[in-house]
Every structure is written in C-alpha cells, then in structure tokens.
Amino acid sequence: EETRQQRIDELDIENHRLRQLLNSSLSQVDSLSNEIRHLSSHLSRNRRRYRDLEVEYESLLFQYNCARADVDRLQSYED
C-alpha cells in the first residue's frame, strides 16, 4: 500500500511538472503566434511600400527619358 501511494505521489508530481511544461509551451506558442502576426503585418506594409516605390521609380524613369530626349533634340538643333 505504501509503495502504491508513493507511486501515486510520484505520478502526481510528474503530472504537475508536465502541466507546467505544457503551460509554458502554450505561452511560448502564443508569443510566437503574436510575433508572426506582427511580422506579417510589417511584411504586408513593406510589400505595399515596395510596389509604391516601383511605380514612383517607373514614373521618374519615364520623366528622365522624356527630358533626355528633349535635351538630345535641342542639341541636334544646335548642330
């Protein structure tokens, strides 16, 4: 009977330890999940910003090419 009770006590202690480990793991999962959501939000924002910058770059490149063509045309008149 004593060894049976001792075994029950050991199992209770192990069960308590495993519950603490599980709770700690769940807490870490929650933390990581929040971090992933946060990073995902930043990634989406950065992708939008990148697309905006691409559009702005294309516009500036077009303006530059037009200005370059104007300069070339004016120089050809001078020649």
Automatic annotation (TrEMBL):
Name the UniProt record assigns to this protein: 14331_t:CDS:1
